[in-house]
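Board notes, transcribed. Complex of a protein with FE2/S2 (inorganic) cluster.
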Amino acid sequence: MADKKKMSAEDILAACRTGGGDSPAPKAKAAAEPEAPKAEAEKPAPAKKPGEMSAADILAAARSGGGGAAAKPADKKPGDMSAADILAAARGGGGAKPKADKPKAAKPAAAAKSPAAKSDAQAARSGPMDTSSILAAARSGDKPGPMSKAEAAAKGSPVGATKPVLPPMPEKPAYAKPAVKVGASDENRRGFMAVLFGSSLAIGFVSLSATALAWTLGTARFMFPNILIEPPSKFKVGFPSDFAAGTVATQFKAQFGVWVTNVEYEGQQQIVALKTVCTHLGCTPNWLEAEQKFKCPCHGSGFYKDGVNFEGPAPRPLERYAIRVADDGQIEVDKSKTFQEQIGQWRDPACFVPV
Ligand code: FES
């Protein structure tokens, strides 16, 4: 038989396009006798494995709308389907139909496009779909997967048809509303003051200005010499009659650092001005009227009222300042000149006023 001959892929395709292949008789026969495929489908198909089918078998099965695939059990897994099964399912839809217990030829091919088939295809789409289900859906014209807005509008789907109507926004409470507006100039002034005193930039500028001012004042002070304001070196203490013999006037100690005494030195009564500085280490002694002596509080040196040392570590007598009777008859003390006893300066008439 010629259909048992091995055919190439081109031969198979040409036979499919012409509908006849190498043997037009089966087609004509099928057209003349439409009940023949049904009879063939009712006959049990030979238990040929898919790999053992020849091209003629595949073509015969395709032309008959079911062929050997009609006898294929409907619960065959998609992975186990042969080329003949797939072709038969594509042409006749018999392999994809869930009602596989009926012969494939008993159902016309248009039955795949019936409403029942459509619903079956849609039901199958919701779960895992096998190859026949996909093909049935493709034949029915339904496009699986997401739809565009135009498709959805054509099908009357609510997807993207209308926008949801949102409820109106509630009105703002009174406390959330802005306060009464002040003038633009007030706002500007407040903003300026906030920037001037409230921002870190303003604090930085104020600190910088204060530092610059301190440096300026310091530099200006450096331009002037330090001046020690002292009491005048010459001052008047009163008339000679104000100082009785053997007395010590202490009222000038605090202001001028001088004791004015009327004492006898080397057999001569003199009014002298003694310096109130200890000759040991420079402390200030005190006049002790009861003991008739000057006593140093630091190391205990003692001096007579004429200034000569007699106890303690002081190495020499107190010093004298220059003294004289001024033109007005008052005694004037000059602290710019001092006289020391150990070198014989006390004999200088400039350091005493004879009484
Ligand atoms: Fe006056 Fe030492 S300082 S006794």
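The two ends are 180 Å apart (CA to CA). The pocket of FE2/S2 (inorganic) cluster is lined by residues 278, 280-281, 283, 296, 298-299, 301, 312-314 (CB under 6 Å).
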